[in-house]
Amino acid sequence: MTIDPRMQSIAESARDLARRSGLDELACGATLSAVAEGGSDRRFFRLAGGGRTAVVLSQPGGGWELDSYVELARFLARFQVGAPGIYAFDRESGIILMEDLGDVHLEKVLETASHVEEETHYARALDILVELETSATAAMTREGLLRERLFDEATLLGETDYFMREFVAGFCPVPVPESWERERQLIASTLARERPVFMHRDYQCRNIMLKDDRLRIVDFQTAHRGPGVYDAASLLKDAYHPLRPGARRRLLEEFHAKLQARGARRGERFDEFYRVFTLAGVQRNMQALAAFVKLGARKGKTGFLESIPSGIDLLEEGVRESGRLPGLEALVASIRSRLRSVGKEGNR
Fold first, then answer.
1. Which residues are within 8 A (CB) of 134 and not within 5 positions of it... i.e. 6 or more apart?
2. Contacts for 168 with CB less than 8 Å, ≥ 6 apart
3. Which architecture, in CATH terms, is 5-98?
4. Cα–Cα distance between 60 and 174 in angstroms, integer?
5. CA 147 – CA 225 distance, rounded (Å)
6. If you placed Cys at 96, which of 57, 185, 295, 311 could pair as Cys (CB 3.0 to 4.6 Å)?
7. Which residues of 5-34 are buried (b: 16+ CB within 10 A; e: fewer)?
8. What does the alpha-carbon distance between residue 19 and residue 6 come to, in Å, rounded to a whole number?
């Protein structure tokens, strides 16, 4: 049996970190096994020994994302949002030892959930966003957290540049409507005017775990100060698990009411909120389609290409519902036509 030298090195470093941190069960003889990979280049493992487990996050050389993961996990531990506990962190080896949240992603749970169960899970996930937009945001503002990470107009325009570069130019070349620049600017400026809150930035069903009947959140290291409605759109217009429009609207109405009850979005009519949410969904779906292509076509993680059809459906739905983006509507129609003609929609 061939032993992966890199994995052996990670195991030794993880056991050494456990020993230095007083986690005796994980220090001697603990075994390391790989955990399924996601879209990032970071690697995850499970360290098990003495009846105890921990997840090992490994990124050789460390970097700002590992520092951010630890800082934000410790910050979020003060609120009822389900972030994993951090046991130990070694910057030199690029390893974090943290609470094991299991292997059950919300996406997997939703696959077999009834409509009632589905809406219950989504309502609970939105309750986490209420906490992030109220208690966590108040502390973030008071303590100056994320003050240099603003999800502002420039960042939003960067996402639509990403969509044009990766998805349109790199995967599905189609004519770009003359109104593209004006319409993406409209979306970016609308979202940039939103009150900045603690924003997860990738709040979707693969970044939410279910453990002991409690939702737990992961992959929050790229959090920003930005429009909370972007997180709501990431969750409720998620290409990994498209939600029925009627259910989405009911959940949004409840979410909006809870935010208002907690002092956020006070005085705002739901229709105004829904208009901004629709534009946030268009923005998010363009970003997601770009990521599916980058990960699936360029990085060889072909499973991500399977979500392209759902992403296009959601983008088309949002564009039409907005009633303000005729150029984007034409762009989506061109994308559909080209993908059908070359037979690569979702399986390039």
1. 259, 262, 263, 264
2. 174, 176, 331, 335
3. 2-Layer Sandwich (3.30)
4. 40
5. 7
6. 57
7. eeeeebbebbbebbeeeebebbbeebebee
8. 20
Measured CA angle at 42 (ends 143, 135), to 5 deg: 25
Please write the tens of the pLDDT for every residue from 134-145: 999 999 999 999
* pTM of the complete model beyond 0.90: yes
Task: Give the closest residue to 32 by CA, choosing from 22, 16, 215.
Answer: 16
pLDDT tens per residue across span 224-236: 999 999 999 999 9
SS percent in the chain: helix, strand, coil, step 5: 55, 15, 30
Domain boundaries, the chain: 5-98, 106-342
Output the six-digit token pair for 347: 């399986």
Residues in the chain: 348
Which residues are within 8 A (CB) of 61 and not within 5 positions of it... i.e. 6 or more apart? Answer: 94
Contact 98, 55 (CB under 8 A): yes
Q: What is the domain class of 106-342 according to CATH?
A: alpha beta
Residue 265 CA to residue 141 CA, distance in Å, equals 17
The rounded distance, in Å, linking the Cα atoms of 151 and 230 is: 10
